[in-house]
Write a structure and sequence with these properties.
105 residues, mainly alpha, 0% strand
């Protein structure tokens, strides 16, 4: 899919695909940091400094995830407003993730 897109796709399709990849990467990183913050919180053993650091890690990961999705929806909204044929939906993102995971194996 990616090879075909880069060889035969339009600029709008390529931008949409890279936005989907950025959304996937931001989501995975946010989940990783939420888990990391949770583990740090559990292993803090009552140390106030470690608890504070863990809570900040979780908070900023969630804020980053929300900002990522807001930016994605803002780009989609502006594309629709300007009549740019920007078609990127959840099934396209899932197909892209499936292809990436198959390429890793």
């Amino acid at each position: 899919m990616l090879r075909e897109l880069l060889e035969q796709g339009s600029v709008i399709d390529i931008v949409a695909t890279f936005l989907a990849l950025a959304l996937i990467a931001a989501s995975v990183l946010s989940i990783f940091f939420i888990i990391w913050g949770g583990i740090t919180f559990i292993l803090s053993a009552g140390n106030e400094e470690k608890i504070k650091k863990a809570v900040h890690t979780i908070r900023y990961a969630i804020i980053g995830l929300v900002v990522t999705f807001v930016a994605f929806f803002a780009v989609s909204f502006v594309a629709n407003l300007l009549d740019i044929p920007f078609e990127l939906n959840f099934s396209t993102i899932m197909d892209l993730m499936r292809e990436l995971f198959q390429a890793m194996q």
